[in-house]
Structure formats: structure tokens, C-alpha cells
Known about the structure:
Blueprint: E1 4-8, H1 14-23, E2 28-32, H2 43-46, E3 56-59, E4 62-65, H3 67-78, H4 91-120, H5 126-149, H6 160-169, H7 172-176, H8 184-194, H9 197-202, H10 212-227
Parallel strand pairs: 1-2
Antiparallel strand pairs: 1-3, 3-4
Helix pairs in contact: 1-3, 1-6, 4-5, 4-6, 5-8, 6-8
The structure holds glutathione (GSH).
Glutathione binds at residues 11-14, 35, 40, 52-55, 66-68, 104, 108.
Amino acid sequence: MSDITLYSWPxxxxxxxxxxxxxxxxxxxxxxxxxxxxxxxxxxFLKINPxxxxxxxxxxxxxxxxSGSIMLYLADKYDTDRKISYAPGTPEYIEQLSWLxxxxxxxxxxxxQANHFRVYASVRSDYAIKRYIDETKRLYSVLxxxxxxxxxxxxxxxxxxDIANYTWVRSAPGSLEIDLAEFPAVKxxxxxxxxxxAVQKGLTIPDSGRTEAERxxxxxxxxxxxxxxxxxxxx
Length: 235
Ligand SMILES: N[C@@H](CCC(=O)N[C@@H](CS)C(=O)NCC(=O)O)C(=O)O
């Protein structure tokens, strides 16, 4: 029996949790945490995630924070049919863990910094924009090599490792103007995963009141704002 509450917002990290919950067909309540209003820094929320970020879940008295640990927790506890995960102790589980950590320690932080400097920053740093977009693309080329020879990241089965990387990669054209045609196997994998009903539903949880097209328009306007600034790098 589960008693799950999801605290989230539809960002690349947030939807990892909602997609996983939807894939596992679990019942859960959702508490929207609009991160632009900083609720995630309030005292009550820090008791659920001391890092003051989304997503987080509670399952009864158990709190779980960090999107990667939420996915592992849900898969280890509730994916008894192994629909979206491999069983602990198997070589495939370690491969799944490796690609999950690749996203948590590499792709997420690097693409997050690329988003910051390209879309949200209050100064323009061409150095930082180039550094983080180049690194994001380098990580995509690692995914490309893997997906050239494997249907999914951990092997022949779609798993939480795919979900974790997918939510970030799918957002790159809209936020960073990265053309996925440069990475054909990654593009095909994104298109395949995007057809799944649980993925389509999870991407909309919680409702932010803005469509994806509106969010992408917002990113475009923010990039134009940065482009209009003078580069602040000192040489
Ligand atoms: N490593 C964390 C990162 C979480 C994270 O950075 N969440 C962002 C949204 S994608 C957030 O809450 N930002 C608001 C803030 O930093 O205050 C995870 O994977 O859960």
C-alpha cells in the first residue's frame, strides 16, 4: 500500500518523478510547488527536502528527495513487475544505475547551467554560455554512442535511466535551441519515449497554467534579452 504525496513543478527534474509515478500506475496526491514563488525555501518544505528544491515525495512517514533517489525508491519498492526497472543485484541494474547517475551528476547539472546562462542570467557571459552548451552537447554525444548500439540506455528495456535523461534532452530544443538532428539515435529515442501515455501525462503534472509552447516562447524572449546585452566577460 502506498500513501504518496508528490511535491513538484513541471520542470525537467520535476517530471522525472511524475512520469515514474504514472508509469507505475501508483495513486498519489500532488502538491504544486511553483518554484518562481520560492515556496520550496519555506520551513515546512525544507523538512521534506532540506535542499529546498523540487521534486520531493513523501510515502507515509518516509520522505524522499533528489529526483534520482525518488525514481530508485519507487522502482525498488513498487516496480515488482519490473516494468521500468531492472532487479537489484543484476548486471542490468548496475547499467541502469550508471546511466541514472550520468544524468544526475553530469547531464542535469551541465544543462542546468547552460539554461541559467543562456536563458535566466542577469548578465551575459559568452564564455559560460559556450562552456555549458558545449559540455551539454558532449554529453549528448555520449548518449548518441550508447543509443546507436542499444535500444535503451540500460539495455533492451525502457527504464528509469531513460526517463531521467529523456526529460532533459527533450527540453533542449525549446530552451537552448539544440537541434537533435545532430544526434539521430537520441532523436529517435526521444520520439519513441514521447509516444508513451504515462510520459505524456507525467509531463503535465502539476499543471503550471502554461503550455509548453508558451514556456518555449518565454525562453525565446529571455534568450533575446541576453543577446541584447553586452558580453560581460573580461579578457
Ligand atoms: N539534483 C536535484 C535538482 C533539483 C532542482 O534543481 N530542481 C529545480 C527545478 S528543475 C528547483 O527546484 N529549482 C528551484 C530552486 O533552485 O530554488 C534533483 O535532481 O532533484
